[in-house]
Amino acid sequence: MSEQDPSAKDLDYIVPALQRGLRILELFNSDQRNLNMNELAELMGGSVSSIYRIVQTLAAMGYLQKVGKNGYELGPQLISRGFTYLASRDIVDVALPHLNTLRDRTSLSCHLSIREQHHTLYIYRSFAQQRLSVNIPIGTRIPCHCNAMGKMLLSSMSEAELESLYQHVRLDDHMTSGPRNLPDLKLAISEAREQGWVLSRSDYATAIATAIRDHEGNVVAAINVSGPDAMMAAEGVLERTRDMLLECARQISAEAGYRPAALT
């Protein structure tokens, strides 16, 4: 190998155990969904004892899942994280031009988020270049019940799903004006579902949020428009902003494949 070859220069930094763990995950595909320890060892060119600890580590972290007495398949952690990433990248690509246009039309900041368990995860922002602007960084996580987008992200969940999600979550640990218990959260989600949008006010700022749906009608993301109360309180601004937000969400959802059921 030449001196300039990056693979040659980086060889000293390879972690063999990590490399073997990733190779084990790569063994699973549409033709090999379930492999036992002997099959894994054979495909890896080693013994069962040489890969045992790696397999157990992957299983403990949820990247592999035990099936039957001695079989394994890809675990929920790997699958959910992979699909969450792919879905979030796709929706960013679709939503980006629409949110930038919405920001230019309203002179207000716009954000895009997805749900990670009971948190709102911000994955894109279109920042309004004003002295008074709401600017929440990409990667920020906020409990869903504490913000407008979070309530919209929860709006497609059934009562049973909400109960399961919030079974071990305390809602009164957060210093917000949001729901303080599960019945109040269910009521807020019901109102969001019926209205189709949510308005929230906090820290001298106002936000309006609505949902983004995919081709199956599922809520896959949420968007908002947010700005200082001083701007949003001007006559007619709130109503015009809400209407532009809803139209923006309609366009993004349509590009994501959503087709509302025809009225009869």
What does this structure look like?
It is a single chain. The protein has helices at about 5-10, 15-25, 35-45, 50-60, 75-105, 150-155, 160-165, 180-195, 230, 235-255, and strands at about 35, 65, 70-75, 110-115, 120-125, 140-145, 200, 205-215, 220-230. It has about 260 residues and is α+β, with helices and mostly antiparallel strands. It folds into two domains: about 5-75, Orthogonal Bundle (Arc Repressor Mutant, subunit A); about 80-255, Beta-Lactamase (2-Layer Sandwich), CATH 3.30.450.40. A hairpin with a 3-residue loop joins strand 2 (about 65) and strand 3. The protein contains ten helices and nine strands. Strands 6-5-4-9-8-7 form a six-stranded antiparallel sheet.
- Which CATH-level-2 architecture of the largest domain? 2-Layer Sandwich
Topology, number of strands: 9
Count of helices? 10
Let me know the largest β-sheet.
Answer: 6 strands, antiparallel
Proportion in β-strands: 15-25%
Q: Give the number of domains.
A: 2
Write down the overall geometry.
elongated
Chart the SSEs and their pairings.
Elements: H1 6-10, H2 16-26, E1 35-36, H3 37-44, H4 48-60, E2 64-67, E3 71-74, H5 76-106, E4 109-116, E5 119-126, E6 141-143, H6 148-153, H7 159-165, H8 182-195, E7 198-202, E8 205-213, E9 219-228, H9 229-232, H10 237-255
Antiparallel strand pairs: 1-3, 2-3, 4-5, 4-9, 5-6, 7-8, 8-9
Helix pairs in contact: 2-4, 3-4, 5-10
